[in-house]
């Protein structure tokens, strides 16, 4: 392979705003790049992660009109989970409606969909609901949000690869979370996700915050093939209060979705692939992705004839892995108007 691509230079938005959507929510959005360029929407991970400045850099700013937004309850959207926002109306299908409302608000006829991890889940759900509004799809770190995937990462499977980090994840759950003998990783009959659901909703702020940091740290420290202690990822902040705010939103919203099987039980994403099988796409997945195993990408690619699958042989889950970044940039460049 030739020299790996690196992200486009840092760039500031030319437009920001707040979009009122149902249930008392206002979504922060921003537009970056060329106002007359090809529209693309960046769908962030989590859910609950929010958009970061580096997300703007995955597209040629001269060719693309880049739209980013913070999903309900996180980032700069209001009300924020850390301020007591209600999760009752925070569902996959309400987020799909939010994306469509944003497209209409911005006067965009159709756009490219770009998402990773949970962003791939929501991106697929949106595209299947509104295929006529999607020109291409670029996804990485495929997460289909099936029970088997939640079991793998949050109920003990991935612990066999990261037993040291799993200790931190278990530390807030109480002794009943631990099995005996060789069953340390997954106590029979114990539901880690349900227990976290209780802790994160605790009336004691200290209990909820401790659980939020344990949940968030588990994911952060397992997302890279080679973990860089100086790279805190999206949760890194020099301000402890901001780090707490991020962790509360990230953990509470993620856990809410995964406790409810991402509200996909009646509409599995693979079952809906006929609606978008004709849409050009690129799937990028790290070979050593522990958060979302690479089998997810293979299963998706098998159902999507118009998509190309690229496995990054030296990458884990994070978008910032050099080879994953390279493949994603190559994909967005390929779909530029002048390509």
From TrEMBL:
Residue ranges annotated for the AB hydrolase-1 domain, each copy included: 38-318
Protein localization: Cytoplasm
Enzyme Commission code: 3.4.11.5
Pfam families linked: Abhydrolase_1
Main localization of the protein described in the UniProt heading: cytoplasm
Record-level GO BP terms: proteolysis
Reactions that this protein is recorded to catalyse: Release of N-terminal proline from a peptide
GO cellular component: cytoplasm
Top-level taxon: Bacteria
Gene Ontology molecular function, alphabetical: aminopeptidase activity
Top-rank EC class of the record's enzyme: hydrolase
Active site per UniProt: 117, 289, 317
The entry's keywords: Aminopeptidase, Cytoplasm, Hydrolase, Protease
Family membership noted in the UniProt record: Belongs to the peptidase S33 family.
Protein name: Proline iminopeptidase
Taxonomic path: Bacteria, Bacillati, Actinomycetota, Actinomycetes, Mycobacteriales
